[in-house]
Amino acid sequence: LEILDIEGVLILDSKYTRVYGREYTPVPLTIQTFKEGLHTNNDTSIFLTGDSNTLVLYRKINDIFIIFYGNSYCNELFLNSMMNVFVESLTILMKNEVTCTNIDSKYDYLILLIEYFIYDGMFMVDTVEELVKMVPKRNFENIKGMPVPKGFSSIFKKVKFFK
């Protein structure tokens, strides 16, 4: 009896370099397994790998691939629905700009989103609103630097300790 909804999550950039990866089964798969089925002109696609009999669902957003994979008997419709929840939540957290550079700068959001969304291969949330609400917000996101009065830095120049 298989209780896992998903065997792994993989996020690749446009050069097929691993940005994030997590396996929930003891059988790891390589990027080469997926690379032959990924097409840069499709937004969303689903395919079976020939050698490992794994169902792969991926979505291309700008310059990244988001890949969910499971055994060949998993429910494709449910997997696609969960992919939609994940992508919409990621889009909200990345402020409608899901790119590799934006993910690099907000990598903590990506990790937290996946940790709250998937627990040991089982999806824990099924709505975008609930998932986004669970992810803690950055309290430093909109904070500007402390204003320094003009001429204040000249005080430090006068102190011999800072020379």
From TrEMBL:
Membrane topology classification: Peripheral membrane protein
Cellular localization per UniProt: Cytoplasm; Golgi apparatus membrane; Cytoplasmic vesicle, COPI-coated vesicle membrane; Cytoplasmic vesicle membrane
One biological process term in Gene Ontology: intracellular protein transport
Coiled-coil ranges per UniProt: none
Superkingdom: Eukaryota
Keyword Membrane: yes
A cellular component annotation (GO) from this entry: COPI vesicle coat
Record keyword Transport present: yes
Main subcellular location of this protein, as a coarse class: cytoplasm
Membrane-spanning intervals of the chain: none
Keywords: Cytoplasm, Cytoplasmic vesicle, ER-Golgi transport, Golgi apparatus, Membrane, Protein transport, Transport
Gene3D superfamilies: 3.30.450.60
PANTHER family, per the entry: COATOMER SUBUNIT ZETA, ZETA-COAT PROTEIN
Family: Belongs to the adaptor complexes small subunit family.
Assembly description: Oligomeric complex that consists of at least the alpha, beta, beta', gamma, delta, epsilon and zeta subunits.
Task performed by this protein: The zeta subunit may be involved in regulating the coat assembly and, hence, the rate of biosynthetic protein transport due to its association-dissociation properties with the coatomer complex.
Protein name: Coatomer subunit zeta
Organism this protein belongs to: Pseudoloma neurophilia
